[in-house]
Amino acid sequence: MAAAAPSWVDLTLQSLRGEGFRNGGARRAVVDLLGRQECCLTAQEMFDRLRDEGNPVGIASIYRVLELLSEKGFVQRIEVGSGVARYEPAHHAGEHHHHHLVCDRCGKVEAFADEELEAAIHNVEGRTGYRVAGHDVVLRGACGDCR
Amino acid sequence: MAAAAPSWVDLTLQSLRGEGFRNGGARRAVVDLLGRQECCLTAQEMFDRLRDEGNPVGIASIYRVLELLSEKGFVQRIEVGSGVARYEPAHHAGEHHHHHLVCDRCGKVEAFADEELEAAIHNVEGRTGYRVAGHDVVLRGACGDCR
DNA sequence: CCCTAAATGGTAGCGGCTCTCATCTGGCGA
DNA sequence: TCGCCAGATGAGAGCCGCTACCATTTAGGG
Ligand SMILES: [Mn+2]
Ligand SMILES: [Mn+2]
Ligand SMILES: [Zn+2]
Ligand SMILES: [Zn+2]
Question: Which UniProt keyword terms apply here (chains A, B) (predicted)?
Answer without folding.
Answer: Cytoplasm, DNA-binding, Metal-binding, Repressor, Transcription, Transcription regulation, Zinc
